Amino acid sequence: MSSPFQRHLGAAGAPPTTCSDEPNGLTYRQAREMLSQHDIHGPQCRQWLAAAAYLSAGLDDE
Which parts of this chain are annotated as the region Disordered (predicted)? Predict the structure, then answer.
């Protein structure tokens, strides 16, 4: 069973993030990766929620 506070390694050696960390300054690519890394956690995970909100709002600058 997966814990909602499970740690994941990000891309390119980025520091691991926890579900309770709220990300700042997302890009489209970061949001997509974060969404796929935390997809099993759903909306109780701040990482997943922030990525989903970013992508839903269409805030990408790329």
Answer: 1-25
Whether the full predicted model's pTM is greater than 0.70, yes or no, is no
Residue 6 tokens read as 């499970």
What b/e string do you get for 38-47 counting C-beta neighbours within 10 Å, with b at 16 or more?
Answer: beebeeebbb
DSSP secondary structure of 1-62: ---TT--B--GGGPPPB-TTPPP-S--HHHHHHHHHHTTTTGGGSHHHHHHHHHHHHT----
Using N-to-C axis directions, what is the helix angle for 46-57 and 28-37, rounded to 10°? 140
